[in-house]
Design goal:
It contains 16 helices and ten strands. Strands 1-2-3-4 form a four-stranded parallel β-sheet, sandwiched between helices. Strands 5-6-9-10 form a four-stranded parallel β-sheet. A two-stranded antiparallel ribbon has the order 7-8. The two termini are 15 Å apart. The structure holds inosine and zinc ion. The site of zinc ion has 6 residues, from strand 1.
Length: 370
């Protein structure tokens, strides 16, 4: 065996081994990741009768197909059913606990999970109580994972809905809980018509508090949204950001010419929280093979791999990575790079990020690369 044959054999990804390598997830919605059976059981417990199917399998199929709509607005309508069953202390804690356990079972070692507290007040809980119950569920899921030999750490991001007017309040909530497990802030929801600058005071509050945030931008709307998120709001990361490719021209020989905004994003190493399957479902990209993930990765943007909504996309970190490997032919060194990109971009203190990279990620990839 020559050196290059050996190197390529060692770097070839065995799809079955994906759950065993350490993975880092920065963009995952708590209310988009419920187990179908849990949706069903919680609906029974809280008397929610509007579920679109009566079995776990039926629900799994319904969520995937309904989310496969080609439009972000229609995709978001499916959350009505998950949010409806996450209105009680028990419901919130269970969903959060199962989220941590499921991610750990998939080999995720560090995750930032997000949700919008303002959507969970229907049964009288306060914003603070909602966050407390979700944090309690995450801690209990971490312990449960550890008892079964899996180690995961989950940070919480608090999301404000961009069509609503509570972003400043949610930013304050995030800062109030910063030493109790909340690591940052975000805005989500329908992007077109709700530019990031509508929530400028929330972002200014976060910056004033030296606190971190990301912004869903460049998913259903293009460059103006990304520009505002960066230039006006000062975002640390871009949720999706896939439409940054609108500012990249490919010449006749395939050579890329970056516009000023694309250059800025790359120069400043602004992390892109790319969510391949979700982007195909919402129509941000027409097919996985046309996803700009690979172009952006080859141009050395700081790309990261994310699930967005595991229930709606019927996915997991391992499955997203498998889809990328099958579509673009990535090897283990590529997946390790995407994972380190994500860990570098986490909203954890620098020394803790480095410790996970050096003590967990690199040794984990060294095992599969031989
Ligand atoms: O990809 C997305 N783009 C924009 N908003 C989203 C996406 N996925 C989920 N949400 C929205 O975020 C809320 C809090 O988690 C969800 O309820 C959903 O409305
Ligand atoms: Zn999202």
């Amino acid at each position: 065996m020559t050196h290059s044959e050996r190197t390529s054999a060692q770097s070839t990804v065995d799809i079955a081994a994906l759950p065993s390598v350490p993975k880092v997830l920065l963009h995952d919605h708590l209310d988009g990741g419920l187990r179908p059976a849990t949706v069903l059981e919680l609906a029974g417990e809280c008397g929610y009768t509007a579920l679109p199917a009566g079995t776990a399998d039926g629900l799994a199929t319904w969520f995937r197909e309904a989310a496969d709509s080609g439009s972000l607005e229609r995709y978001l309508e499916t959350f009505e059913h998950t949010v409806a069953v996450m209105q009680t202390p028990a419901g919130l804690e269970r969903v959060a606990r199962e989220c941590a356990v499921d991610l750990a079972d998939d080999g995720v070692v560090y995750a930032e999970v997000r949700f919008a507290p303002e959507q969970h007040l229907d049964r009288g809980l306060t914003l603070d109580e909602v966050v407390e119950h979700v944090l309690a569920g995450l801690r209990s899921g971490e312990s449960q994972a550890q008892a079964s030999g899996r180690r995961i750490r989950v940070g919480l991001l608090l999301t404000a809905m961009r069509h609503a007017a509570r972003s400043r309040e949610i930013a304050e909530l995030a800062v109030r809980f910063r030493d109790r497990g909340v690591v940052g802030f975000d805005i989500a929801g329908a992007e077109a018509g709700n530019p990031p600058s509508r929530h400028l005071d929330a972002f200014e509050y976060m910056r004033d508090a030296n606190a971190h945030f990301t912004i869903h931008a460049g998913e259903a709307f293009g460059l103006p949204s990304i520009h505002e998120a960066i230039a006006f709001c000062g975002t640390d990361r871009l949720g999706h950001g896939v439409r940054i490719t609108d500012d990249i021209d490919l010449g006749p020989g395939g050579e890329a010419r970056l516009g000023r905004l694309a250059n800025y994003v790359r120069d400043k190493r602004i992390p892109l929280e790319l969510c391949p399957s979700s982007n195909v479902q919402t129509g941000a990209v027409d097919a996985l093979e046309n996803h700009p993930f690979d172009l952006l990765a080859r141009l050395r943007f700081r790309v990261t791999v994310n699930t967005d909504n595991r229930l709606m996309s019927d996915t997991s970190m391992s499955r997203e990575m498998a889809r990328l490997v099958e579509t673009f032919g990535y090897g283990w060194p590529d997946l390790e790079r995407f994972t380190i990109n994500a860990m570098k971009s986490a909203f954890l203190p620098f020394d803790q990020r480095l410790a996970i990279i050096d003590d967990v990620i690199k040794p984990g990839y060294a095992v599969v690369m031989g």
